[in-house]
Amino acid sequence: MEYVKLNNGIQIPMEGFGVFQVRDKEECRRSVLDAIRAGYRLIDTAASYTNEDAVGEAVREAVAEGICTREELFITSKMWVQDMENYDMASSAVDASLKALGLEYLDMYLLHQAMKDYFSAWRAMEDAYRAGKIRAIGVSNFYPNILTNFCETVRVIPAVNQVELHPYFTQEDALKTMREYGVVPEAWAPLGGGRYNPFDNEMLKGIADAHGKSVGQIILRWNVQRGVVIIPRSTRRERIEENMDIWDFVLTPEEMTQIGSLDMGYGDTRTKHFDPDFVRMCVHRKIHD
């Protein structure tokens, strides 16, 4: 496993495990435990996934079994839009995530969307960060123009920006903006979220064969070689283990260029985030009373 240093000096694993859409609590607990046993130390959840409690249970079980210590894990969660109403609601959301996870601190906490009063929410996160409740704070789904305005305004620059990043949506301009502000890019849907059929691509299959790897491993390796943290998701133990097995080979510059040539210039969420109906859905979606 490789690590990258965040702008506040702490280190984050370059590969983690995501639990988006893993709604069944027992399946989530089992999958996270399988991931930790397979060597994952970064676990990514969110209040809106409604599985923070299952993640916390798996973390405690892993520590109790002696697989790892709590300090070796890097646990991330995210504040949902509902709680970005004002400073007080955002402060309560931080505490609610800690309570749901059963943890004394979070390694990373992110604003899930650039919606509602996310500046007030960020001030609450800054204070939680200074109080030691969170080791690092960041954002998610902040496009370059939004991230630029944000970084030019806030006191604490985000450590991470979690966005859609894969060969079909490379977001080179977004990566350039993040580098300018010292923000580490983190890819959700690093395999494309099942929308682009990469496993049928002959070029990708050829590169995979050349390295004795799967197409999925090639795609994940491509992102980490760009300096992108990845959080692939799976509930199948063999796939969880396969996704972790990307640290014993290196793609050539020519292969990196070939894979990047698949870029379509847009992704599924780029369309949604600019759709007023999607924004209204996020603003009005409630995850708690």
Topology, pairings included?
Blueprint: E1 3-5, E2 11-13, E3 16-18, H1 25-37, E4 42-44, H2 52-65, E5 74-79, H3 87-101, E6 108-111, H4 118-130, E7 137-140, H5 144-151, E8 160-164, H6 172-181, E9 184-188, H7 202-211, H8 215-225, E10 229-230, H9 237-244, H10 253-260, H11 268-273, H12 276-284
Parallel strand pairs: 3-4, 4-5, 5-6, 6-7, 7-8, 8-9, 9-10
Antiparallel strand pairs: 1-2
Helix pairs in contact: 1-2, 2-3, 3-4, 5-6, 7-8
Annotation keywords:
two-stranded antiparallel ribbon, 12 helices, 43% helix
Tell me what you see in this structure.
- The chain has helices at 25-37, 52-65, 87-101, 118-130, 144-151, 172-181, 202-211, 215-225, 237-244, 253-260, 268-273, 276-284; strands at residues 3-5, 11-13, 16-18, 42-44, 74-79, 108-111, 137-140, 160-164, 184-188, 229-230.
- With 289 residues, the chain is of the alpha/beta class.
- The chain has a single domain (3-284), classed as TIM Barrel.
- The strands form two sheets. Strands 3-4-5-6-7-8-9-10 form an eight-stranded parallel β-sheet. Strands 1-2 form a two-stranded antiparallel sheet.
- Helix 1 (25-37) links the parallel strand 3 (16-18) and strand 4 (42-44).
- The longest helix is centred in the first third of the chain and has 15 residues, at 87-101.
- It is globular, with a radius of gyration of 18 Å.
- The chain starts with a strand and ends in a 5-residue tail after the last helix.
